[in-house]
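Interim report to the steering committee. The following record documents the input for MALR1 protein (132 residues).
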Amino acid sequence: GSSWIKCDFEINLCKALPEFNLQPGWIRRSGQSGMGAPYSDHNGNESAYFLSLSSEMQSSSAALRTNVFLPTDEEHTCQYFGVQFHYWVSQMSATLMVGLQKHSEDTVTKIWQVSGKLWNQWNVNNITINST
């Protein structure tokens, strides 16, 4: 069976993104915040919330870290899990990267990246991870 963790930021951050994993620069806002585009979420809802980098962070970088994903049971230590996310890139020079950090390692392995295209519109991506 698959268990989905849906994170829409409507009430707060979700179980996958605890408050202490939100680095400086990220803010939870809606399209009505007066901060510029995007003016709605990916469904076109102007009052819906999403995470955004504050304008002061344009020359720097910031990360979002999820909770640790653990094997569902001891017999099947190998598992697949999927991540779907919607993203908006407003600067041609910006890069969005998804990385994976194994529990026993310090380094983050890049598994997906986009930069300099599809900007100023909502895009969606799905990543499936086969983890041991």
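Residues 68-131 form one domain. The committee is asked to note this result when reviewing the revised timeline.
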